[in-house]
Structure formats: structure tokens, C-alpha cells
């Protein structure tokens, strides 16, 4: 039974809880600070693939519906947490990873504009959990936040669902290679991080000489 509660194992999660398990994981990852470590993207992709191949007996349309619902409801809860608790909530996290995520979320909103930042954050691990309360703290208009969060959530979900369905329907026995597939999907989903990493490295390189010359 403890194994059935493992939120990182799509097969056990779907067998034990069905689409409700997908909803809960994506809701926690998006809306609750404690869920930042959950791999919502690989879980949704794997769940669709397993349903398509018949490895899990669950109606396929229910999975993306649960995914979209979890993402969008979680986003609104995270936004509400930012409104109710404000910056002290983020300061109490006590995690360097979360602190870095908050800084990156603020940087995205300030540099790329609200719409682009909100959509892009959906594809960035940790940042997608933290951008929702941060957006409220920095006073992104609620209507702007809701519209772009819906767009980002739909694009993200549809992309993963289509990927899982195409592989599941087109490659016989693909469910026997879940681990390398999930690793490949995780690598692809991390590609949006590359420009951010390069930009941060250039920023550090530019600021280090200034620090060395400062008396």
C-alpha cells in the first residue's frame, strides 16, 4: 500500500487512484510550495502513454482533463496564497532551491513581461510552483494572470498529452521502455532552462570583475 502512494510512479498511482492521482499531483506541484519537487510533466506524459497502450485501464480523455484541472486550480490556489500570506510565506520556506526559484520568477516577470513570463514558467520546474504567489506579490493584475495561466496550462498539457498519445499509439511495446523515455522527456522539457542558465552565467561573469575592483 505504501508503494501505491508513491507519487513518482505513474503505474502505481493510476492503478491506486486513477485520474484523481494525476489531479492531486499536478495540483500540489502547481499550487502548494511543498509540491515543487513533484515531476508533473513526466507523470502526465507517462499516464497518457500507459492509457494509450492499455497498460492501465482508464479512459484516456479523463487523464488530460484531470491534468488541466489540477494545473489551473493549483495556479489559482498559489495566487491566493500570495495574496493572503505575501512575501513572508516565501521567506519561511528555508530552502535555497525555493529561494532561487523565487528570484528567477521575479526576474522573469520583470524582464519578459507578464504574459510571456507566466507561460514560460509553466515549462520550468520549481519556477512554475513559485510564480503564482510571486505574481500576486508583485501585483500582476488578476485578470492578466488568469488569462495567461490558462493559456500556458493548456499549451503545456496538450503538448504532453499529444506526445504520450503518439508514442503510445505508434510504437509497439513502448511501455516496456518507460525509464529511458521519461528521462528523454525530462531532458526535452529542461531545454527552456538553457537560455536562463546561460544568461545567469553571463551575468555572474560580468559582475565578478566589478566585485574584484571594488575596495
Give a structural overview.
The structure is a single chain. By secondary structure, this protein is an all-alpha fold. The protein is built from eleven helices and no strands. The longest helix has 29 residues. The relative contact order is 0.13. The N terminus and C terminus are likely disordered.
String of helices and strands: HHHHHHHHHHH
State the end-to-end distance.
61 Å
What Rg is obtained from the alpha carbons, in whole angstroms?
19 Å
Largest sheet at a glance?
A: none
Q: How large is the share of residues in beta strands?
A: under 5%
Structural class: mainly alpha
What is the count of DSSP helices, taking H or I runs of 4+ residues? Answer: 11
Write the layout of secondary structure elements.
Elements: H1 10-17, H2 19-31, H3 40-53, H4 62-85, H5 87-91, H6 96-112, H7 114-121, H8 127-137, H9 142-170, H10 178-189, H11 193-213
Helix pairs in contact: 1-2, 2-3, 2-4, 3-9, 3-10, 4-8, 4-9, 6-7, 6-8, 7-9
How would you summarize this macromolecular structure in one to three sentences?
The chain has eleven helices and no strands. The protein has helices at 10-17, 19-31, 40-53, 62-85, 87-91, 96-112, 114-121, 127-137, 142-170, 178-189, 193-213.
Task: Name some characteristics of this structure.
single chain, 0% strand, 215 residues, mainly alpha, disordered N terminus, disordered C terminus
Amino acid at each position: 500500500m505504501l508503494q501505491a502512494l508513491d507519487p513518482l510512479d505513474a503505474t502505481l498511482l493510476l492503478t491506486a487512484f486513477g485520474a484523481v492521482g494525476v489531479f492531486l499531483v499536478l495540483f500540489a506541484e502547481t499550487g502548494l510550495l511543498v509540491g515543487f519537487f513533484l515531476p508533473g510533466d513526466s507523470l502526465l506524459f507517462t499516464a497518457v502513454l500507459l492509457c494509450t497502450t492499455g497498460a492501465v485501464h482508464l479512459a484516456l480523455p479523463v487523464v488530460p482533463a484531470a491534468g488541466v484541472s489540477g494545473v489551473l486550480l493549483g495556479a489559482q490556489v498559489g495566487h491566493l496564497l500570495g495574496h493572503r500570506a505575501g512575501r513572508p510565506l516565501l521567506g519561511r520556506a528555508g530552502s535555497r532551491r525555493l529561494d532561487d526559484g523565487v528570484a528567477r520568477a521575479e526576474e522573469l516577470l520583470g524582464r519578459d513581461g507578464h504574459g510571456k513570463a507566466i507561460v514560460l514558467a509553466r515549462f520550468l520546474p520549481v519556477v512554475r510552483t513559485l510564480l503564482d504567489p510571486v505574481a500576486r506579490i508583485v501585483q500582476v493584475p488578476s485578470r492578466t494572470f488568469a488569462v495567461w495561466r490558462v493559456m500556458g496550462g493548456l499549451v503545456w498539457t496538450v503538448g504532453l498529452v499529444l506526445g504520450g498519445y503518439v508514442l503510445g499509439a505508434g510504437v509497439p511495446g513502448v511501455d516496456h521502455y518507460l525509464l529511458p523515455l521519461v528521462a528523454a522527456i525530462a531532458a526535452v522539457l529542461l531545454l527552456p532552462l538553457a537560455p536562463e542558465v546561460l544568461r545567469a552565467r553571463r551575468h555572474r561573469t560580468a559582475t565578478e570583475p566589478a566585485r574584484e575592483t571594488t575596495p
